[in-house]
Amino acid sequence: MNRNAVLRGALGVAGFLLVMEVLGRTGVVDPYTLPLVSSILAGAFGLLSDEEFLTGVGITLSSSAAGLLIAVAVAVPSGVVLGTMPAVERAVRPLVEFLRPIPSVALLPLALFLFTVGEQGKIALIVYTSFWAVLINTLYGMRDVDPLAKETLRSFGFGSYDVVRRVSLPSAAPFITTGVRISASVALIVAVSVELMAGGDGIGTFVSDAAAGNRRDLMIAATAWTGLIGLLINSFLAGVERRVFRWHHVQAGEDVT
Amino acid sequence: MSRVITRIARLWIIPVALVTWEVITRIAEAVYFPPPSTILVRLHELWFSGPFTRAFLTQESIDHLLPSLGRLVLGWGAACAVAVAVGVALGRSAVMYDCVSPLIHFFRSVPPPMMIPIFMTMTGVGTPLQLAAIVFGVVWPVLINSLDGARYVDRKYLETCEAFGVSRVQRVTRVILPAAAPKIFAGLRLSVALALIMMIISEYVGSTEGVGYHMLVAQSQVDIPSMWTAIVILGALGLVLNAAFLRVERRLLTWHRAARTNG
């Protein structure tokens, strides 16, 4: 990104905020329905020292991270095993294709019946959703491994464990990272959805409470913070992908649910 | 014919999984996991046992399934049309792209369900809420992909247009849109899943009808088989939309893949 682009981007953001403020002040947009930008910004600033909000953010982020970690811990080994056994992969494939498009939130009532303690239901749904993106991307990666490299190691007498560790996993790593990045934003979406639909602690609950108390400024401010957090997480993971795997240009699609 | 048979034969694991599920749930008598046969019977009587003249739809389907589908199609279609048009227009101007890019990426990063309470204070409960929710979920990924697609059109194509005096309209419909199509389709496919999620949540928290609302009622009455019928319907919807989309995409983008493999 060059300096001009940054400058224009800043101008765009400032212009947008200014227009919204003017629309509110002149009464074109009713400031009751959509609070003024200035009061939203003030609210956003105030949230930084709001105990309840910060705890909510912490709970939402930690349950997303927990769910994502469990999903990676299950999906990557499954992907590697399936990737080394093409016959099994072919057999299981239709099952994956059937289960993957099921919208995770449709399973929420079931998850609530099964997991009644704390954030377990939320984490279970996050695991279910994140699992597919990581699994599919691991499979892509395993398919992309250079067969020549595998054969070379084999002919030097390396066992299949070493082939996986020295060739398959490193060469599938960029794909897996893409899967994790996609899953990270999906995990946040699912976490918030569960909080909105089922209550419990978290940023989603904070917003529905603010709605119940008719604090529209806080509602929008909290949502804006969540957007920024999501943006930061995504840019961070995309940066890792670019920097660590510079030697590799992943062409994996952003195909997720 | 034989190709169809091999294709179906590849799916052998699905009936095997269903039978296994049936046997296990019958033996375990798990409360929250009714056997698939029970779910199917319930699915039939609750949703699809209506008269022939109404295409076998029951009153339940007409009251809950059709409104859901209607809003899904309307919200998704409208959002996509606007997002593709705006995205292609903005993507052709480098200055405009730089100006709006941070804003669009910010809105894209807001988990869409977060917007539902905000919309609810503006629209109240009902169809406008569902439409607003679906549109917000769909618009950003489609917009970003259309922007990117329109941005990186091969210079040579555009210079050729210039040299041959191709009109503006034709340049958009014949060159820019096709060149951006693969990216646009990636965004559209992604947005189908988001539209479905937004439909379910907005019906669950702010509606008096729809499959999501039906799910809520079944859950509160602890009517597990009825709840499972909603899960099956929503799952099938996700599966069918996804498959249909891949089909359309494959047909429309054959030229793209052909060009890639030859080049």
From TrEMBL, chain A:
Task: Pinpoint the ABC transmembrane type-1 domain residues.
Answer: 57-237
Pfam families annotated for this entry? BPD_transp_1 (PF00528)
Any one cellular-component term (Gene Ontology): plasma membrane
Q: Does the keyword Mitochondrion apply?
A: no
Which coarse location class describes where this protein primarily resides? membrane
Instruction: List all membrane-crossing ranges.
Output: 6-24, 61-86, 98-117, 123-140, 175-198, 218-240
Record membrane topology: Multi-pass membrane protein
Protein name according to UniProt? Nitrate ABC transporter permease
From TrEMBL, chain B:
Give the membrane topology, semicolon-separated if more than one: Multi-pass membrane protein
Q: Which UniProt keywords apply?
A: Cell membrane, Membrane, Transmembrane, Transmembrane helix, Transport
| Pfam families registered for this protein in UniProt | BPD_transp_1 (PF00528)
Which Gene3D superfamilies does this entry report, sorted A to Z? MetI-like
Question: Where is it found, in Gene Ontology cellular component terms?
Answer: plasma membrane
Report domain ABC transmembrane type-1 positions: 65-245
Protein's GO biological process: transmembrane transport
Query: Which InterPro entries has this protein been placed in?
Result: MetI-like, MetI-like_sf
Asked if the keyword Lipid biosynthesis belongs to this entry, the reply reads no
**Annotated localization:** Cell membrane
Q: Transmembrane residues, as ranges? A: 69-95, 115-143, 184-206, 226-248
Entry keyword Isomerase? no
Q: Which protein family is it in?
A: Belongs to the binding-protein-dependent transport system permease family.
Q: What is this protein called?
A: Nitrate ABC transporter permease
From which organism does this entry originate?
A: Planobispora rosea
Q: Source organism lineage?
A: Bacteria, Bacillati, Actinomycetota, Actinomycetes, Streptosporangiales
